[in-house]
Amino acid sequence: MVAVKYLTHLERDKETRKVLLSLAQSIQERDIVTYEHSRRVAVYAQRLARYLGWSRREARDLALAALVHDLGKTWIGNDILNKSAALSTEERQKMERHPITGARILIGYEVHPFYVEAVLYHHESWNGQGYPAKLAGEEIPLSARILTVADVYDVLTSQRPYKAPLTTDEARERLLAGSGTNFDPVVLQAFVHLLDITPDFTLAQNICGISLKSLRQPGFYNMFIAGS
Fold first, then answer.
1. By the 8 A CB rule, do 40 and 208 touch?
2. Is position 217 within any domain?
3. PANTHER family from the entry (predicted)?
4. Which of 47, 77, 139, 227 has the fewest CB atoms lying closer than 10 Å?
């Protein structure tokens, strides 16, 4: 008779962390720009989650989800990922499938639905005009609503092939313009307040040039977080 091993909660948690960090490494190897973006989003999302009252463990889990939120982009060609001109309709359709692709990869690894939902729905909009499922309002998991704000803030303040970075003040105003349409107003207001009260909130683009070996250290999840 074959013995069946039942993993404890801590063992499952450890295995999930190993899987997600391994997938983060695959992003790093495939596209360093997407990897560094994901690292910054992880920090912003963790800070925001803690500010909203999430426990350290919950915020850490959200940071892990943020590390792989663009996992599906590893299946998109560089001609689209690095294109400096506007995407064609077909190219945009391919790009907008990356949350589905990423979620399917996570499902294949049998990770907890929390991570799958955060990845799948991080491009949904409060007004229901996002993708891929066109969820609206509180239909969107809170994890994804937090990731959306953190994700967009980093895109706005980062150098991209198609745009120069905005200043913190410019990004702040752009985010506020999307309150109630792109973003959950409550989550956005919390993020803006956190931005206003935290000196040097915006991470430099090279701050994420850290090896995956460093990411596996216990202190990683609280790195850069004021008061941690």
1. yes
2. no
3. CYCLIC DI-GMP PHOSPHODIESTERASE TM_0186-RELATED
4. 227
Q: What are phi and psi of 179, to 5 degrees?
A: -65, 125
Provide the residue range defining the domain that includes 206. Answer: 1-210
Which member of 5, 14, 18, 73 is catalytic? 73
pLDDT tens string 169-227? 999 999 999 999 999 999 999 999 999 999 999 998 864 444 444 444 444 444 333 32
Q: Is the CB of residue 22 less than 8 Å from the CB of residue 15?
A: no
The predicted structure's pLDDT at residue 218 = 45
Q: Is residue 145 one of the residues assigned to a domain?
A: yes
Contact present, 191 and 149 (Cβ < 8 Å): yes
73 is catalytic: yes
Q: Read off the tokens for 54.
A: 């999430």
Tally the domains of the chain: 1
Domain-embedded: residue 165: yes
Tokens linked to 119: 């990845």
* Domain CATH number, residue 60: 1.10.3210.10
Q: Which of 196, 220, 225, 190 is nearest to 53 (CA)?
A: 190
CA neighbours closer than 13 Å in the CB half-sphere of residue 228: 19
